[in-house]
């Protein structure tokens, strides 16, 4: 193999999504020579290039700092839950943050292999316009989302759902629309919610869009049912009555997210869906009459592919039961965000199955349909996360088996299928990235490998960096904790609470 260029660094971060940026930032701020590779020419991955511009999870640490900087420039809609940002500005700010910290960035650089000796990655082999390059590093952090580096190095991994013959979650190519009247849209959604929850009842459909899509199908204005809801995030800084929005609603099912032919099938299929959705929105959705598609995401919305096997595999059950760990380095307060691998109608699987009610989980005897679990219908109890609880992600889930000088962060950490569906969202991806950066700096200082690092030290250092793992979540999460009432399951398998004032979620 001809190598045209060589680099040497202390920490090499592969993948410049939110997890990778957070890892590189933290390592560099600890005074460590840090190099970050990114195959695109901008940072943020799915959050920016994928137009996923609303932040789920607990905004802490580097994620909080990033959002505060976006806010200071006027490109954040800072609300208690799901703050949203302008994806183009957000990627510029990530770049500024890395450059200020002294991280060396290589764009347009694709990791394609590793050279491994004695369970250590000696070099990561990359391809770029400079040709083949070899990068030697003392610690490598894999934040490729797909655990590419780990797989090249021989780390064991899992792919897809065991309940669905290894299929991945359905995927979504997001897009951007211009000329949307958000006042009219917000009013239509509010009126629909009021109608649906009149007399304190639970909504019969997942969203206004589901109701409108049914009408469009009847009228022949949609060729088939795509998905029962859409995330529509306003781009901050655009006028409310003539806004830009990002839209997350296209879906491909039966996906194999490590197969280039299937990935190509998905993006072609979803680009076609976007043209149908544009017409559908214009005709049926209030506020969208003058709207037009103004951009297609440049990163495909792959929710999951490889999940490495690490020193601890975060269990589906840990999410439902709100498990805490001595080496907990990030936390997760939201529901399972498992997009159904095969069913456009059902949309999500917000539950797992337990033999018996356990821990903080919200349980009811199993009553899901065969359509929900077409390859085998698990019994026992359907278990959902209690909205007032949270689980932690242990440091050991970032430490892969088999390779000594490697850490993994973001959406490919060691977790079962539904657990990764939960903790893959933006805020925890950034916090696991931050913990990987902390751990890398510790390992270099003490000349040890990540496996031998005491995770409780990483936890303490994270607390020292302002991630309040030692305190109960505040703000929106404290509000949820305070909701008193009976937990109920609503369409789409959300969990809500029936309170004396009616239904809340
Ligand atoms: C459709 C969809 C909707 C979502 N909705 C939400 C939401 O509303 N809120 C929320 O908080 N989260 C949401 N998520 C989840 C969240 O956006 C992602 O899981 C999270 O951003 C993942 O961050 P990451 O850094 O781990 O991975 P990624 O963002 O995938 O970043 C990986 C980076 O590595 C680069 N890369 C990959 N392979 C290589 C390689 N071999 N060499 C060099 N570079 C490489 C990629 O170009 C990319 O920049 C959604 C995800 C999807 C797909």
Could you describe the 3D structure shown?
- There is one protein chain.
- Among the domains are: 5-162 and 393-464, FAD/NAD(P)-binding domain (3-Layer(bba) Sandwich); 175-296, no CATH class.
- The strands form 8 sheets. Strands 1, 2, 5, 6, 7, 8 and 22 form a 7-stranded mixed β-sheet that branches. It has a 4-stranded antiparallel β-sheet with strand order 11-12-10-13, with helices on one face.
- Helix 1 runs parallel beside helix 3 (87-101), helix 1 packs parallel to helix 10 and helix 10 crosses helix 11 (455-464).
- With 505 residues, it is α+β, with helices and mostly antiparallel strands.
- The protein is built from 12 helices and 25 strands.
- The structure holds flavin-adenine dinucleotide.
- Residues 14-20, 37-40, 45-47, 52, 54-57, 110-111, 143-146, 148, 172, 174, 231, 248, 301-303, 410-411, 424-426, 429 line the site of flavin-adenine dinucleotide.
Would you summarize the structure shown here?
The chain is of the alpha+beta class. 29% of the residues lie in helices and 23% in strands.
Secondary-structure arrangement, i.e. CATH architecture of the domain at 5-162 and 393-464: 3-Layer(bba) Sandwich
Low-pLDDT windows of residues? none
Mean pLDDT: 94
- Give the ligands present: flavin-adenine dinucleotide
Question: Strand count, sense and closure of the main sheet?
Answer: 7 strands, mixed
Helix/strand structural class: alpha+beta
Percentage of residues assigned to helices: 25-40%
CATH topology of the domain at 5-162 and 393-464: FAD/NAD(P)-binding domain
Radius of gyration: 22 Å
Report the CATH C-level class of the domain at 5-162 and 393-464: Alpha Beta
CATH superfamily of the domain at 5-162 and 393-464: FAD/NAD(P)-binding domain
The tally of beta strands, per DSSP, is 25
Share of β-strand residues: 15-25%
Helical run tally: 12
Identify the overall geometry: globular
Give the N-to-C terminal Cα separation: 57 Å
